[in-house]
Write a structure and sequence with these properties.
Blueprint: E1 9-13, H1 18-29, E2 33-38, H2 41-55, E3 60-63, H3 69-82, E4 88-91, H4 106-134, E5 137-142, H5 155-175, E6 180-187, H6 193-206, H7 210-219, H8 229-240, E7 251-254
Parallel strand pairs: 1-2, 1-4, 2-3, 4-5, 5-6, 6-7
Helix pairs in contact: 1-2, 1-8, 3-4, 4-5, 6-7
This protein binds NADP nicotinamide-adenine-dinucleotide phosphate.
NADP nicotinamide-adenine-dinucleotide phosphate binds at residues 14-20, 38-40, 43, 64-67, 92-95, 115, 142, 144, 187, 189-190, 192-195.
């Protein structure tokens, strides 16, 4: 099975911690040159050094805030003016705040739509020509299992994730003829800062202990544990590889069996 990504460049968004960071390290381990993108420049610098040690290359980073899609677009376009193509794009960043849909403001929907859908769109538009010219392209979107079944208490997130999944399927249909694949990875509960925050919020809201909240969440997971970020990254590493060339337009849950549908 061909998993080698030497001579490929991957742009990994939201990659200073959590799932994005694990994806960047996995793709680097497969030989790819990595461009990290997130807001915290100090963390980006530190992570580039880690990646350099993994793949022996001089990896790069871009500082950008996904709440401002124009600056994200500019950062990627500027980078591409002086560099070769980006062959692998991992669309990922921080999830929208939790809350009931009946409490959600219009601003919360606009902001999540910009951060998750419009940013995916402008980055993809910037990199797609290079993918076509290189005859190699992988767009991998980190979304959520809420694409298949809405999650309790994540009103804005559930809504926006569905739009990202349909955006991805539409894109897959358009660019497949160039050998570009577009797939969605749907993490279940994964041990990152985001999960800790969700558990803390629920404990405060319901006056339960952290252990009780965790216990309730684990009851819904057949594999009876939370995912490690590296386990989500393994799926991304495979989808990014030549071995996955005939897989496109799918939603791949990596959720320990939690989603109660096929
Ligand atoms: N963890 C889970 O259990 C779980 C489950 C299902 C789905 N997901 C989804 O998977 C994605 C990643 O989750 P995670 O748990 O890895 O999250 P995380 O630990 O909070 O990490 C988020 C990453 O995105 C970056 N980021 C956040 N807001 C940004 C912004 N406005 N502009 C640019 N970068 C930004 C952060 O870096 P900076 O702060 O440096 O910008 C960080 O590197 C999210 O969409 C999340 O909702 C997570």
């Amino acid at each position: 099975m061909e998993l080698d990504l030497s001579a490929r460049t991957a742009l990994v968004c939201g990659s200073t911690q959590g799932i994005g960071k694990a994806c960047a390290r996995q793709l680097a381990a497969q030989g790819a040159h990595i461009i990290l993108m997130a807001r915290d420049e100090e963390k980006l610098k530190e992570e580039v050094l880690e990646l350099n040690a993994i793949n022996g290359l001089r990896n790069d980073y871009l500082v950008a805030d996904f709440s401002d899609y124009k600056s994200v677009k500019e950062a990627v376009e500027l980078y591409l003016q002086s560099r070769n193509a980006i062959h692998i794009l991992v669309n990922n960043n921080g999830g929208p705040p939790a809350g009931k849909i009946t409490d959600a403001t219009p601003e919360a929907f606009f902001s999540a739509f910009t951060q998750h859908l419009i940013c995916n769109q402008v980055i993809t538009q910037a990199v797609v020509e290079g993918m076509i010219n290189s005859n190699y392209g992988r767009v991998i979107n980190i979304i959520s299992t809420s694409v298949k079944a809405p999650l309790h208490g994540l009103g804005v997130s559930n809504t926006i994730r569905a739009s990202v999944a349909n955006w991805a399927k539409t894109l897959a249909n358009e660019v497949g003829k160039y050998g570009i694949t577009v797939n969605n990875v749907l993490p279940g509960a994964t041990k990152t800062g985001r999960l800790e925050q969700i558990i803390r919020n629920k404990a405060e809201r319901t006056s339960q202990s952290l252990t009780d909240v965790e216990g309730e969440m684990l009851q819904e997971i057949p594999l009876d544990r939370f995912a490690l970020p590296e386990e989500i990254a393994n799926a991304v590493g495979f989808l990014a590889s030549p071995a996955a060339a005939y897989i496109t337009g799918i939603n791949l849950p990596v959720d320990g069996g939690r989603t109660a549908s096929l």
